[in-house]
């Protein structure tokens, strides 16, 4: 994601990302919407990109009912006191999404607000969009998601106590507790890269194998996210770790026995190592 505002700005102008809370789709459908980038993760990313602030506009019936001129006058000019606005060329706003990017440029100009309309971004002819990223992840293609995002798709969560089945099988895992709204990719096994700090404060950077699923072999019902770190041992309980998806290894499977599951986990580790060797 490139910074929305680029160039030189007058003193007192703050680089700001404005978004809605909740997402308009969630508001109108009443159904919770999973997010590629939950709020805390978004804040951390914006800080690395040089943004000064994030503004969450409460999306409610009053805001949804604003006409395009009223949105520009009340929200952008009066409340936000915007000086420069940047939107994509497919941007829509106002009641029933009736305002276009061209409408915004015209309306904003009347308030002395400059408008930058950025072209749609494409890679190899395909448009970069959150929908395309979600589809790639649902298809078990984290490499394409990385291509579209410009970075690996990342899961950030706290390591919590699990059932310790992996430890009994000889493959101890870190059970990851994620924000409930985090969008999860296809169930299955992934080769991943893990970063963080262990319980002793030592930096962590390791390769691993992650499983997303309900563990059908042991009659699991709740979905879990578990990471086995290769060539690493230590205490991660209570720590926050970052898991970057490298490649999809296989879909979720049910095995006839724990012995078959153990054999497959070993194969997963071997396939993950082979993946990284091809990249070196």
Short description:
By secondary structure, this protein is α+β, with helices and mostly antiparallel strands.
Task: Provide structural commentary.
The chain is α+β, with helices and mostly antiparallel strands and 280 residues long. Helices cover 30% and strands 29% of the residues. The protein has nine helices and 14 strands. The strands form five sheets. The chain has a six-stranded antiparallel beta barrel with strand order 9-10-13-12-11-14. β7 (122-123) and β8 (126-127) form a beta hairpin. α4 packs across α5 (101-109) and α6 packs antiparallel against α7. The longest helix has 22 residues, at 258-279. It is elongated, with a radius of gyration of 22 Å.
Helices, strands, pairings?
Blueprint: E1 16-21, H1 24-29, H2 39-48, E2 53-58, H3 61-64, H4 68-79, E3 84-88, E4 92-93, E5 99-100, H5 101-109, E6 114-118, E7 122-123, E8 126-127, H6 130-138, H7 142-149, E9 154-160, H8 165-169, E10 174-177, E11 188-197, E12 203-213, E13 224-229, E14 240-251, H9 258-279
Parallel strand pairs: 1-2, 3-6
Antiparallel strand pairs: 4-5, 7-8, 9-10, 9-14, 10-13, 11-12, 11-14, 12-13
Count of alpha and pi helical runs = 9
- Percent range for helical residues? 25-40%
Strand order of the largest sheet: 9-10-13-12-11-14
In terms of DSSP E residues, the strand content is 25-35%
Rg over C-alpha atoms, rounded to the nearest angstrom: 22 Å
What distance lies between the first and last C-alpha atoms, to the nearest angstrom? 27 Å
**SSE pattern, N- to C-terminal:** EHHEHHEEEHEEEHHEHEEEEEH
What shape does the CA trace take?
elongated
Total E-strand runs: 14
Low-confidence stretches: 1-9
Structural class call reads alpha+beta
Report the sheet with the most strands, covering strand number, pairing sense and barrel closure.
Answer: 6 strands, antiparallel, barrel
Mean pLDDT: 90
């Amino acid at each position: 994601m490139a910074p929305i505002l680029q160039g030189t700005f007058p003193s007192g102008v703050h680089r700001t990302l404005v978004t809605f809370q909740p997402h308009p789709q969630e508001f109108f459908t009443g159904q919770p919407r999973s997010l590629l980038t939950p709020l805390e993760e978004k804040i951390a990313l914006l800080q690395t990109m040089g943004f000064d602030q994030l503004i969450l506009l409460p999306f409610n019936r009053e805001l949804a009912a604003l006409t395009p001129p009223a949105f520009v006058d009340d929200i952008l000019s009066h409340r936000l006191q915007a000086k420069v606005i940047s939107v994509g060329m497919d941007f829509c706003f106002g009641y029933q999404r009736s305002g276009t990017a061209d409408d915004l440029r015209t309306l904003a100009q009347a308030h002395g607000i400059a408008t930058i309309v950025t072209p749609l971004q494409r890679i190899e002819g395909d448009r970069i969009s959150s929908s395309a990223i979600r589809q790639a992840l649902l298809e078990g293609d984290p490499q394409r998601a990385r291509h579209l995002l410009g970075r690996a798709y990342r899961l950030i969560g706290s390591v919590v106590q699990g059932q310790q089945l992996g430890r009994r099988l000889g493959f101890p895992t870190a059970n990851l507790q994620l924000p409930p709204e985090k969008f999860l990719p296809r169930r299955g096994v992934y080769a991943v890269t893990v970063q963080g700090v262990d319980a002793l404060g030592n930096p962590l950077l390791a390769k691993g194998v992650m499983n997303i699923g309900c563990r059908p072999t042991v009659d699991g019902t709740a979905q879990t996210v578990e990471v086995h770190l290769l060539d690493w041992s230590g205490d991660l309980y209570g720590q926050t770790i970052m898991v970057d998806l490298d490649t999809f290894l296989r879909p979720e499977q049910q095995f006839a026995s724990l012995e078959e599951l153990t054999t497959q986990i070993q194969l997963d580790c071997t396939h993950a190592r082979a993946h990284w060797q091809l990249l070196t």
